[in-house]
Write a structure and sequence with these properties.
This protein has one domain: Macrophage Migration Inhibitory Factor (2-Layer Sandwich). Helices cover 28% and strands 27% of the residues. The chain starts with a strand and ends in a 10-residue tail after the last strand. InterPro entries: 5-COMe_2-OHmuconate_Isoase, Tautomerase/MIF_sf. Pfam families: CHMI (PF02962).
Length: 120
């Protein structure tokens, strides 16, 4: 915990600094949600394609990114909202929005009580 997933469209690959974003994101999660630094894990998943409205898939005038943060239950709605706002701000800082419209979203969800992890 936390389990962080960043899904993003191909248009972002040339403008997204994943490493610096992850470092800043982990620092925010530690500060806002009281997570331990060594517990922060982020998985980046670049999509093969993305569709926006009625545009052809080859048109990359729009970039889409969605960040999901899975945390153990117990954080207040205020804490979750602060965290999603921080994520959106970090995306603005770490995506060089040169030639596309950025559509960014984030959510914090409680991990299911069945959540378990293995390190070995």
């Amino acid at each position: 915990m936390p389990q962080i997933t960043v899904d993003y469209s191909p248009a972002m690959s040339r403008a997204f600094d994943e490493e610096e974003f992850a470092k800043a994101l982990h620092a925010s999660v530690v500060e806002i949600a009281a997570a331990k630094p060594e517990a922060c894990k982020t998985l980046f998943r670049k999509a093969d394609s993305a569709a926006y409205a009625y545009q052809d898939l080859a048109v990359e005038e729009h970039a889409i990114v969605h960040v999901t943060l899975g945390l153990l239950a117990g954080r207040s709605d205020e804490t979750k909202a602060r965290l999603t706002e921080a994520v959106l701000e970090l995306l603005r800082e770490h995506v060089e929005n040169e030639d596309f419209v950025l559509h960014a979203s984030a959510e914090v969800r409680d991990l299911d009580p069945s959540y378990r992890k293995y390190e070995g």
